[in-house]
Amino acid sequence: MDGLRDGAWTFWDEGGRRYAQREFRRGILDGWALGWHVKNGGRRWEVLFSHGLQEGRAVGWHELGGLHWEGEFQAGLREGAWRVHHRGGGLALEGVFGRGQREGVWRAWHPRGGMSSEVSWRRGARHGVERRWYRSGSLRVEGDWVDGLREGDWTEYGRGGRISSEGEYAAGLRTGAWKLMHTEGGLRAEGTVVEGLLEGWWVHYWQNGVKRAEGEMRRGRQEGPWKFWHQDGSRDREATGIYADDQRDPGESPGNLLTGA
Q: Checking CA distances to 158, which of 78, 107, 132, 136 falls within 20 to 30 Å?
């Protein structure tokens, strides 16, 4: 009697519902570990353990039936092809693990079909091209990653297929010239970004193409003289003025248009 678990053990919750069964050998998981959905008693998962580590094929099921996920373990780490399935059937996510880390191209699908995303990985970090699509099939975003950080040109699209923003990243931060577009098309704002913050001269436009505002940004905040116009092109004298630390006295800042505020 060494006080160590041995053999098959079954576990119940406080309501008396069985949720797991695990096999032990001298206190270490060794053998099949089974799980059940407590609401209906259906199978939840099956995983084989060897000397405390997951080994071999593992499978999970949705509460109402149907395959949820499937893949292989080696020495406790995910290895090889893994797949995740939608509740109503159909593939949701597919990719490859190497020693527990994502590798290569991972693809995802919308519940009713159609590609949702395609992302390249290297040693568990995004590396390479990323593309995402709306359910309609139109492109949503496209850009590159380098060792887990966004790098180079990135473009985002609205549901209608028009560009909503475009610019460059360096080491994961927005940099250089950026353009933001209205949902219905047409330029909304343009200027420069330094280390992820709006910097330098920015110009904003109304949907009809009339200039809305212009002035200088410093570390993401309005500084110095700013001019504002109404949609009809007349000067907005209440908003126009000298700004310091994003504030005009009296008046309020229109916010950081990169975030849509």
A: 107
